[in-house]
Amino acid sequence: MILPIFIASLLFASSSFAAVQDFCVGDLSGPEGPAGFSCKKVAKVTVDDFVFSGLGAAGNTSNIIKAAVTPAFSTQFPGVNGLGISMARLDLAAGGVIPMHTHPGASEVLVVVQGSICAGFISSANAVYFKSLKKGDIMVFPQGLLHFQINAGGSPALAFVSFSSPAPGLQILDYALFGNNLPTELIAQTTFLDSATIKKLKGVLGGSG
Q1: How far apart are CA 86 and CA 106, in angstroms?
Q2: Cα–Cα distance for residue pair 74/174, rounded to 1 Å
Q3: Which residues bind Mn(2+) (predicted)?
């Protein structure tokens, strides 16, 4: 009796999976919720929804960090909505750095295609894992952990990254501390930095308080 029930349950599960829609191209005219965008009507979906050409051009690295990230998330690339994947391009000029940051919603895989990049992350036990990567090397950064990338050579570096979410999220540690109006005295108490240093960093990163 158990075997027929088991077979029946498999058949039911198979038919349920078969009924799942093939894709959910994001309707960018609506709001983005925790589960992503609502689905665009299939009749309005075109092949262009599944193609993104924005990663072919280098980003502008003439900024304070000498780096640029060009995302292909659901907001830019609605075809990945609901698929649990996305990508980005990472350009690092000589001396460029992507500061300590975290992606709350996704793990990340980085592949170096030009130059040399020192990359690493810090575990929740405060263990540090970092290495200088060269062309063809791949490194993974587990979801939610602080990590960084630094140009380790004297010439521009290029990498492509993939994420396990169409909307991985981003929080940069420096901006979280010094790019807002969190009072200087609170930052001093929680980081053990002196007020003069904090105010200087706030001035550089656009914070106040």
Answers
A1: 10
A2: 26
A3: 101, 103, 108, 147
Let me know whether 97 and 193 are in one domain. Answer: no
Question: For the chain, how many residues are written?
Answer: 209
Instruction: Indicate if 67 and 146 belong to the same structural domain.
Output: yes
2 pLDDT higher than 80: no
Residues annotated in a binding site: 101, 103, 108, 147
pLDDT of 20 reads: 72
Residue 188 and residue 127 share a domain:
no
**Segment 41-56 mean pLDDT:** 96
Q: What is the pairing mode between strands 97-102 and 171-172?
A: antiparallel
C-alpha distances in Å from residue 4, one per residue of 1, 15, 16, 71: 6, 17, 18, 49
pLDDT at 14 over 50: no
State the binding site for Mn(2+).
101, 103, 108, 147
Residues marked as binding for oxalate?
A: 103, 108
One domain for residues 181 and 120: no
Is there a contact between 93 and 64 (Cβ–Cβ < 8 Å)? Answer: no
The identity of residue 19, as a single letter, is: A
Containing H/E element for 119?
A: strand 117-122
For residue 3, is pLDDT > 80? no
How many separate domains does the chain show? 2
Position 36 in a domain = no
Residue 182 belongs to domain spanning: 176-205
